[in-house]
Amino acid sequence: MIRWIAAFLLALAPMQAAHAMGSMPGEAFTLSPSDYRWTYQEVLHITNPEDGVTLSCNLFLPEPKVPGETFPALVMPNSWLMEEHEYWVQAKTFCEKGYIVLSYSARGWGQSEGVVNVGGRKDTSDITTLIDWLTANTPVAGVVKAPDGSVADDSDARIGMCGISLGGGLSLMGAAFDTRVKAVMAMVPWGDLVDSLYLNQSPKPVWVKVILVGMGEIAANLDPELSIITDQLFNHEHEAHFDTLLPWALERSPVNFLERFNDEDRDLAVCISTNLQDFLFTPNQMLRFYYGLNVKAKRIDFNRGIHATTEGSGLIGMPNIVWNRAYAWFDEHLKEMDTGIMDNPPISIDNKSSTDRHYLDHLYIKDINGTHLEGISRPPIDNDIVPEKRYLTHRPWYSYRGGLATQAGDGSDTISSGLVSGLTLGIPLLSSLLEAHTQFLNITASLPLSSRSKAIVFATERVGQTRTLVGTPTLSLTLTPSAQRVQLIAHLYTVDALGIGTLISHAPLVLVESDRLMPSAEPGMAKTYEFNFITTAANVPKGHRLAVAIDTFDISYSRPSDEGFDITFHYGEGSFLEIPWLQ
């Protein structure tokens, strides 16, 4: 398994490197030099005293240049399907810059004992154990030692955490539960596991069933509870989710512990790197988590890439924008250097249509569909962007499209469920991967040729000059379903003069008989449903249109029922698209 993933990263590296080196002219950082010699301990076993589980680790230790020199320390948990050797190249690089690095396999992975805990209390207890070991056995900066060499006070220890995917989520959860963590670089982590696994009540078979569970069962010792939750997800046992999925996922969601991050006595800096084509941990849930943070320093970067691909080339030593930010972040907040990383606005986002990157103080998102977060103390989302509202209007018989107009319309249109509509999100993983790391292999559809009975299209007029959409568009639909369980897939396109649409975002929506997360589907009754597209940035070129196209199926999302259904779209004040244009 490890060899397969390494080969994949090597094959992908040229595309990643070209993007990494060519898109970041605004990020020239002043970094600590790589001038430390180091030693490496290949086999290191550390046991959690709470339950006796032993973790497999390796240790990179810089050699002091002067007697008594101390160093900041980094704890680096493995990614899903990987183990503690994953970060060997980057751990060596950090060590040469004067960091102690402890890389480890989380319980259930690699040679570590126990079962996979996915960021639960056993994982956070392991992180505390590892930090205890580091402060007691290595020269960590900020630690006060007693005359006998024992730890007298390690509350000011200069500890950071860094990881990809599972490792990014564990880094955030470790910071939530151990105040000795002063800086975090979380790469493609999750902030909200409920939203990640069950976005708008839509399970993701390829990412969750095949990669997380299927491949996870081969590579690790998975907790049987994860398979139970997955079966319930894909059987759409909606009510069971409130007894199993929600408690399990919230216990492992950083957004559930914002009060710990935001404690006024903490000295914490959090940097998040997420990817625009990541269908597993979508950028939306990380943006909502980012806005909930009230810490000493924070930033979030949105990169072109699917889950973990933008970061992957850095694991084999290729120049990489995300790892370069990691060097700067830890130098800035653990070594107290002025690297320049705090000079740019705290939000950056790649443009899918070009090599541009936008640096912003705010990125628009509407805080909706957060019923599962009720009771969690979260600061309100502070946006200074007012989106443009365009109303969906009736599709005439002579045209393939209805309108996205400045005034609300009336009337209705109906489509039926079906597997083939002419719209698509592409081949799962592959299409998004190629879209992310090339400038020309986009996901497209001929909208005039889409099925009138199984899909519906709404479009603006042609724009008079190129406009840039940056942020999270919101779609509101007034619908009457014919069944208790229905599915919609909304696609957001830029459309050229021939009607060829280039996909720039999408959003799934599943409606069921329960209203505990979203309004329920009641056959024959019209209701309004509001939901967000996936956060994006893209240009609508001069002479092109912006379009929303909706059908009822895509292979990327699990269907709630095999039975057919009809959906009627009603036009008026409740049917609109909100567009966050770049100001």
UniProtKB/TrEMBL annotation:
Residues 327-578 form the Xaa-Pro dipeptidyl-peptidase C-terminal domain. Residues 1-20 form the signal peptide. SUPFAM superfamilies: alpha/beta-Hydrolases (SSF53474), Galactose-binding domain-like (SSF49785). The keyword Acetylation does not apply. Keywords: Hydrolase, Signal. One of its GO terms (molecular function) is carboxylic ester hydrolase activity. The keyword Hydrolase applies. Pfam families: Peptidase_S15, PepX_C. Transmembrane segments: none annotated. PANTHER family: DIENELACTONE HYDROLASE DOMAIN-CONTAINING PROTEIN-RELATED, POLYKETIDE TRANSFERASE AF380. This is Alpha/beta hydrolase fold. It comes from Desulfoluna butyratoxydans. The lineage of its organism: Bacteria, Pseudomonadati, Thermodesulfobacteriota, Desulfobacteria, Desulfobacterales.
